[in-house]
Amino acid sequence: MEKVVAVFGYNNTRLYDVKKIKNILLAKKIGIMLCKEGITDEDRNVSAYCFDTKLHGSHQEIEQAYSNLQKWLSSQNIVIVGVLPFSDKGIVLASYVAEKMGLISDDYNTAVIGLDKFEFRKAEANMNTPVWYKKPRFRKVEQPSDLVQFYDEIGSPVFLKPTSEGNSRGCFLVNSLENMDVALENIKPYLNTGAIAEEYFSGCREFSFDTVAGRCWITEKETTSGNHKAEVQQIVPAPLPQEDYDRLIEAGKLVAKISGSKMGAVHNEFFLFPDRTVMAVEPNRRPAGMHIWDLAASAFSINPFELWINWSIGKQPVVDQALRSQYYVGLRMIQASTDGIIKQIDNTGINKIKDNYNELLEVCLSKSLNQFVHKNPKDNSEFLGHIIVQHKDPKKLKLMLIQLSLRILQFVKVEPVSTDNDKSVVQKVREYARKEKLLVLDCAYMSTYIENWWNTAKHNENFKENKESLKKLLLEKFKNNEQQKLSIVGVAGHHVSGVVLTGLFHTDDPELSHVVHETLSDLAKLRDIKYPHEDHKHLFIKPEGVKKKEWGKGAGRISPHCDDLYEDIDTDLLSLTTCRDNLKVSTLLFTADQIFNILSDDEVYRLTKIMPSFVSGINVEGTVKAKKRPILSVEHNNFFLRLDYRIDELTGLRMQVDNEEDMAILKKIQAYLMPQNAIKAGTEAGHFVVVANMKVLHAREAIQNLEVTCSLNLQTTPRLLFRSKGPRM
């Protein structure tokens, strides 16, 4: 029977490392066997022995996977002499197989700690640790209320993440109540398998503890400043004061013990704080990524993969040793200067750089001609490639890493995605948005005219006659050309995104408010549309809405949005009139210019290419409507901005995109759309506002400490507004 070492679980982006293992085993006359879920042709090209299997799950599922493996091994006439868990999800089945076969491995019973972040925090909490070892507060999140309660208890930002995912998938920083809903939506796909909220700390540096067969070292990490925090640089060994280095070694061994390591491969991640306290980020019973083992090979003159193989087959003495080196070795990813297509690679120029620098150990371009590259990579696969440099002086090493990566970049010609015409679109949008105004006009001088008129008109039950009578009065008494300003809201070339009229009346009377509202909406040329699935005219808190969010008749927060983006008829204008607001919760307004000012030209241009599905909530008919539309469009010397950050309790996000880079831009905008950045429409009776629906987003904060009993009586409800929305007449 042929002897094989089984590699359990790996991403195909790491096949270059699997091939290293294969070559080492070949020299030992041992074969390689690959075990993962979803075998591909790439895998079969590496090994003749590929077993497609579930890698983790319940104990019963692991037992069944082992039973299936035994049958398959018999059919192949091979015997496993060593196991190598190559990924987090591979450690469970790998350690069980080794235990059943009497082979060397890390502990099976604690394997879940390396896979489940909540189980790790529980085990960590029960361990005796040094005073400098920081343990964050944490809580398992099984339902939204768990996160809300934990956030309230902590009183500071918390970090929400899936318990069993890597590479930052599903992770979200909750730093305010305003983005709680977004965080919950972000984590929703992972709630079935588990999520955890942890106390969040800032102002730290990131390192990893790496070990194999007892040999250990510390690696310094650096991440990009973009939204996705991709790892851009690693240095082995970490250039630290000896006391800090030794402390991280001690912390690494402690976490390795918690996770059940028995001197196999470990990659534990840590934060080091300015006060020299240390906090574990997560344990990993597997090799490090990003070529860290290659850096260690150069720094310490060892072969980590051979140490790992020999450990697994019982041929490697385990030595508890913090490795020392004469050189620092660093890897830096090569980052494109713009989004675009690779049009030319000057290998001659790159080779000259390699010839001129003995310290430059490796230049690897992972992208080729005509491939798309990103200025802001979301993970390591989106970089152009990497360089590896060694030097005795860590400061000079860091400088060389930056300088040489930039010099290599000069020999890779990337043609930007944006053309001159695209740039002109961005410039045009910015110019239009800068000119747009939100006019706030004091109309207190009109209140006496309107109140006196109402004293007579309220006895007339003919609403249409009252509206025409009031319109005549307004046109006679307006002295600042208010009627003309109302009529040009959103019209191309006039650059008026909205008008707010304050102090029109003071009497708390729903009928007066209604007729004023309809009259001014007519002057604004707003054709109100009443859809059959909604009752949109009166906005007040219904008894059943006290705990509801994203609803005009609920007390919960309403996220920034444009109305009715899923409808066939465009809602050009939205108007609101305040009858009373004893709760003092203003409508929040955000202009397009505010949003564009926080975005780069590339990001503004990208908005023209993002085509979300805008989805309705579940309406009273129980149906959902959806429509794909661009977020930003330029038409007839005018621009239109479409955003909706509401989250329906049943259908989820009202604005749905699939691309992670698109989502990153939308989240960047959302992070800005906080109450402190809003223009407030006011809460006094007699305020009227009309805005261009696709130029100004509107929102409302949650109504806190609601003590007044909410009823359906328009005379007593504590907050009553009138609303109209629809196309321009």
From TrEMBL:
Keywords from the named record: ATP-binding, Ligase, Nucleotide-binding, Oxidoreductase
GO molecular function: ATP binding; ligase activity; metal ion binding; oxidoreductase activity
PROSITE patterns recorded: ATP_GRASP
Residue ranges of every copy of the ATP-grasp domain listed in the record: 125-313
Species in which this protein is naturally found: Stegodyphus mimosarum (African social velvet spider)
Protein name (Swiss-Prot/TrEMBL): ATP-grasp domain-containing protein
Entry keyword Protease: no
